[in-house]
Design brief:
Blueprint lengths: L4 H9 L5 H52 L26 E2 L4 E7 L9 E7 L2 H10 L6 E4 L2 E7 L6
Antiparallel strand pairs: 1-2, 2-3, 3-5, 4-5
Length: 162
C-alpha cells in the first residue's frame, strides 16, 4: 500500500458525525419544533373561536325561540351562568362557564337600550392568545363590538331590531 492512498482510506473508514454536524441538525430540529408548536397553539385557538361561534349561534337560537314564545327577552344573568329562562331552549349540557377552555359567556339584557345595545352575549377571553383570535374574527364587524378582553355579540339593538 502506498503512502498516498493511506490518508484517503482513513477518511473513508471514519464512523459517526462531527460535533458541528450534530449541532447543525439539532438547530434545524429546534427551529422546526418551534414552528410546529406555534402553529399548534394557533390552530387550538382557532378551534376554540369556532366553538365560540357555535355557542353564539346556540344562544341566539334559544333567545329567539324564548322571545317568540313569550314576547320578551330573558333577564340579565351573571357571567358564566345559564339564564334560567333560557334553560328549556338550550341543549342539555350547554355551559356558559368555559373557564377551562379559556373563555366565559355572559347573557346581557340591558333593558331599554342602555350601553348601546339591548340584548347581547358577551364572550370574555381569559387567555391572551384567544383574545387576539376573537379580536381578529369578531371584534371589527357588526353585530360585534370589542371592549378588551371581551367581545359582545348584539342580539337586539337599542332600536329593538334583531
Amino acid at each position: 500500500m502506498s503512502a498516498e492512498t493511506l490518508p484517503e482510506r482513513r477518511r473513508d473508514d471514519r464512523r459517526g458525525f462531527t460535533i458541528i454536524e450534530l449541532l447543525a441538525v439539532m438547530i434545524v430540529i429546534g427551529i422546526l419544533a418551534s414552528i410546529a408548536i406555534l402553529k399548534y397553539i394557533d390552530l387550538k385557538d382557532q378551534a376554540r373561536a369556532a366553538q365560540i361561534a357555535g355557542d353564539i349561534r346556540v344562544v341566539q337560537l334559544a333567545a329567539l325561540t324564548y322571545w317568540a314564545d313569550t314576547g320578551e327577552h330573558a333577564p340579565d344573568a351573571a357571567e358564566g351562568v345559564r339564564p334560567p329562562e333560557l334553560e328549556r331552549y338550550l341543549p342539555g349540557g350547554f355551559r356558559f362557564d368555559h373557564s377551562a377552555e379559556g373563555y366565559m359567556l355572559d347573557w346581557d339584557n340591558l333593558g331599554a337600550g342602555g350601553g348601546g345595545f339591548q340584548v347581547g352575549l358577551t364572550i370574555t377571553a381569559t387567555q391572551p392568545h384567544l383574545e387576539g383570535v376573537l379580536d381578529r374574527l369578531f371584534g371589527r364587524q357588526y353585530p360585534f363590538f370589542r371592549h378588551p378582553p371581551s367581545v359582545t355579540y348584539i342580539l337586539v339593538g337599542p332600536d329593538g331590531q334583531m
